[in-house]
């Protein structure tokens, strides 16, 4: 999920919602791999990145205050080998290529980060050009290429993302995801006690960066995330200045 404010504004997905007009609620969304990849990648976001994207005031409990503590702490109190950004702007440990660009720039793109070792190529790698090699004592400033796990797997394709694109997926209001099937659709309608199909409405909606952030917030706050974002449209404004890293 890596993007700049330039291509981020151009990224937009379309979703097909099935809405129960009796209760003004989304039953499920019919989605392709792009939307499912986007949702699944929530699970790889570090807590510090989520707080920075949503802002501390939007967080439940005390975690927002905890985030502000190192942010406001004078660097004189930090260990000499520690930096605030390792907590406030943490690097993602797992990279998934090909995920839709639906978030402001998190600065996590491995293609943009530089990895280095020493010129003697000892078995140490760093993303800090001022780091010292433990073996030889020289600066680790020799840039080495990053190889994604997607590039090393036998039989991998350029499709990218998490799930396969051959299927259509059913995303429930609570964001649980299953492959789309007639049986699962009928089971859901029975569960929701829908007997009159005239109360149902198919609606196409657009999904872009603002909805992406709303969805991330709703996933932490609500069991009716799709309804909150697309029907109730609970307020969660994204200011352009908040996109900056």
End-to-end distance, in Å? 14 Å
**Uncertain parts:** 1-9, 236-245
Q: In percent, how much strand structure appears in the residues?
A: 5-15%
Number of helices: 9
Helix content: 25-40%
Shape: elongated
> What would the average pLDDT be, to the nearest integer?
80
In what order do the strands lie side by side in the largest sheet?
6-5-2-1-7
Sketch the topology as an H/E string, one letter per element: HEEHHHHEEHEEHEHH
Q: Find the structural class using helix and strand composition.
A: alpha+beta
What is the alpha-carbon Rg in Å?
A: 22 Å
Largest sheet: 5 strands, antiparallel
- The count of strands amounts to 7
What would you say this structure looks like, in words?
The chain is an alpha+beta fold and about 240 residues long. Strands 6-5-2-1-7 form a five-stranded antiparallel β-sheet, sandwiched between helices.
Would you spell out the secondary-structure blueprint of this structure?
Blueprint: H1 5-8, E1 13-20, E2 25-31, H2 33-40, H3 47-54, H4 63-72, H5 85-88, E3 115-117, E4 142-144, H6 149-152, E5 169-172, E6 177-179, H7 182-191, E7 200-207, H8 209-221, H9 225-232
Antiparallel strand pairs: 1-2, 1-7, 2-5, 3-4, 5-6
Helix pairs in contact: 8-9
In brief, what are we looking at here?
The protein is an alpha+beta fold and 245 residues long. It has nine helices and seven strands. The chain has a five-stranded antiparallel β-sheet, sandwiched between helices.
